[in-house]
Amino acid sequence: MAGLAEQVATPEAGGAGKASAPEYQGALGALSVNASLTDVLARGIEELRAAEAAGDLKETARCHLAVAEASRRLGRTDEADRAWKAGYRTARAAGHAGSMAWALWSGGTLARQRGAFRLAYRLLALAAEWGERGGDIVVRGYSLAGLAETGRIQGDYAAVEELHEQLLAEARRRGEARHTVWALEGIAQMHRNTGAYDRAHALFAEAAEIAERAEDHRGWAWALRGMADVVSVRDGDVAQALALLTRAEAACQAMDLRGALAFNHKMRGNVLYRAGRYEEARDLYTRALAEFRDMTEPRGTALSRLGLAKARARLGRDSAETAAELATLRDQFNRIGLHHAREMVDKAAAELGVGPLPGPGTAAVTPPDAYRTEALRATDVAGLR
């Protein structure tokens, strides 16, 4: 099959229209990308019952997808798991490759959210494959992006940096605002984590501008969060960072973006911690921790615990207790497979003067390089160049 760039008409270079939500399909296709997730879930369940009653397998699969995605973003992971699997079974029974791909994409995204990275790679690679078989270039692109994001979250920047850049170029050519914003934010996050703060801020700012113009409130909120992080760590500008987070928080609340809201609260804790406002930081980390635990979100839970451990140490917690908790968190990050986060634990131990940490400190358990390479090869990313 031809590469993505050969399959679609190319709009004016750099152009981008209004953001859309291709995961809302069929009877739900008119829903806005900014629709309240609670409303999406209610509408999805309603249309699902109607599709099942009519015996329409394709429409039933589409409704399962909307239910799965709304549930996932609301933190209802068990419901999301049941919905995407039901959608996949229904799509398979209907013999519809595109709907199978969308269900697999949803399942892979959920697996990443739950910290099951090996499963995420497998499902997202299959989603890209079935998207290509079915001629659905949108789900194929979403699946490629999911693979790139999975590697980035794990800290495998060398493995996925090129894919991020390729996806950004493709999104710009096609004028897809939502994916342009996603790619810019992913690349910006890698620059931020490697200390290239000016470049990171410029990319986050560009993402925020495109998202605002395209009325992509979710992407805009994530971009503001990234800008706040850089402004805090680079400039020490607490007031501006908090103001950016407040604006982003309002967007998250309007759409019921519970995961994004929890990450917003954790970032607010980071900003306050850097400013030496440890009691306020402790309270924000505690709040974020409860939110992540309520969603069964292991990455956010562990990162909030790390921030909380640091704030408590600054407030006088016994150094041995701090060291023990950091060692536990290091092992947890190892099990999840988060390279960058594990490095953050080591830096925290040095910063707080409690190292070396007890325990073996074994290497992170991640999918073997050969497996990641196989997953990426299955998507034929060369077609994006």
From TrEMBL:
Pfam families: TPR_12, TPR_2. SUPFAM superfamilies: TPR-like. It comes from the Bacteria. The keyword Repeat applies. Keywords: Repeat, TPR repeat. This is Tetratricopeptide repeat protein. The lineage of its organism: Bacteria, Bacillati, Actinomycetota, Actinomycetes, Kitasatosporales.
